[in-house]
Every structure is written in C-alpha cells, then in structure tokens.
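Hi L., both proteins are below.
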Amino acid sequence: MPTVRYIVPDGPEQGREFEVLSGELFDTIRFKDDGEVRDYSRAFADRCKVMEPRPATEIGRKDDSTKPTWRLLYTFIPELNGVARVLEFGAKKYAPENWKLVPDAFNRYGEAGRRHLMDSLAGEEIDGGDKGSGEYHELSVIVCMLFRLAARRMGLK
C-alpha cells in the first residue's frame, strides 16, 4: 500500500511535514520538525496529502489462499466435456433438471453411481445398449456423485 505523507504545499508553513492525529470536524496535526500541534480543517489535511509510490521491492497482496484454484481443472477439460455430454443425454432422455424431482434422489443416485462403477470395474468401459449414454461409465459415476452432492446441499436427501 502506498505511504501517505502530509506536506504543506504553500504559505508560511510551506514544505513542513506533519502527521494527522485525530479529528471529526477538524484534524489535529503535529508538525514533524518541532512537534507543534494545531487544529486545521479536514480540507487542509486533504489538500496537503501526498501519496508516495510503493518501494520497488514491495509486492502486491491478494488474499486468495483459501479460494479454489480453478486452473487445476484445466487438465480435465476433455473429461468435463464428457460429464457435460452425460448431463445432456439425461436431460434429453428425461428432462432438464429432472434429477431434482426423483424421490430419494440422494440414495438412488448413490446406487446408480455404484452400478456404473461396478460395470466399469468388471471391464465394461462404455455405457452402451439401447438406453445407455454411449460414454464411459466413469463419467456417469461423476454425474451421479454431482447429483448426490447437490441433493445434499439442497436438502433433497
């Protein structure tokens, strides 16, 4: 953050540096050269304000250390596109957002996710057949887990 200095720009006190101590209608200031204390209007202090540039060694600060790092998902864009295709398949097969209306959605999508996982572990890569999405079973597992997480958040358990 830049350093704020106060220097009288003109008049008999020109060039004198001071600090602002307090004040509501008036600022109480103290001159740095001799410690003299005076009351001046707030406008006087504002007129004397000088913003010093940041030192070249100072770096900026951003408090985002506890925020998600979305760029970590970039590696998975092809897989996320697959998740979107599975969601689109379901929206066409049933209706958009239909999963929210399924009774006991939390448990039923947990079971559906386990079935897709078991099919994948048994060696069946693609959710095929007449009713399948034609996508990898793992993508359907992810979609089912997203539904469970959202159902929990929305109180649809």
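That was the first. Here is the second:
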Amino acid sequence: MLSEDRIKIMTDLAAYESTDGERELRISGYNQKDYVGLNMLTTALWVTVGFFLIAGLVAVVFMEQIFAALTINNIIYYGIVIVAVYLVVLVTYLIAAYRLYSRRHREARTHVKDYYGKLRRLERQYRKEAMALAKAKELSDLEVQLEGDKS
C-alpha cells in the first residue's frame, strides 16, 4: 500500500540522487584528509602548469627587453622574483583549495547522512507494513483453519 509519507520520501531520495547525490556519495566515500589532500595536490599541479605557461608567454612577449638587460645579477634577481611570486600564488591557491574542498566534504557528509536517514525511515515503513501484512495473513489463515474445523 502506498502512503503519502512514503511517496514524499521516495521523491526526495530520487531528486537527491538525480542532482548532487552521485557526486556527494562519491565525495563522502573518501576520508576528509584523503579527499582534501588529493584535490590540493591536483590544484598544486595545475597552478604550477598555469603559472609557468603564463610566465613563458610573458617572457616571449618581452623577449627583447629581457635580452637587452641580460646580466648575471639581473638573471639572479628575476629568478628570485619569479620563484617568490610563484610561491605566493601557489600558497594562495592551496589555502583556497583547502577551504573549498574541506567545505565540500563536510557538506557532502551532511547531505549523505540525511540521505541515509531517509533511507532508514523508508525501510522502517516497509518493515512495519510487511509485519502488518504478515499478521493479517496469519489471522486470515487462522480464520480459514477455524472455519474448516467447524465443518
């Protein structure tokens, strides 16, 4: 038998599964440290690639000025500046990534807990109905048996 409450729960579960559910279930499967660490590593890799691509493009654009001012002191100075800027950019992105992925994991865990809570509630309703049907069947069988005994 279908009840409004059970239909509402099933609709909520289906809506969650079709939107964010798959991603959040996957995220919550990770330990928070592992999830955040893996994504920070990925972020560091892409920040490094992006930084050196941009630095290479800037070097190509200003190639004449770079070769005109080329001395050992300038090479060392600009090398230090480039490394310092890279480290500042990298640390900034890693802090942002840490906050972002920690929040995502925390929110996914919360949503998945709610999801599993609704699944448990739905299961309890099915069990309760199954027990009621089993009792009704027992009573029906008992009535049939008693009627058979009277005959």
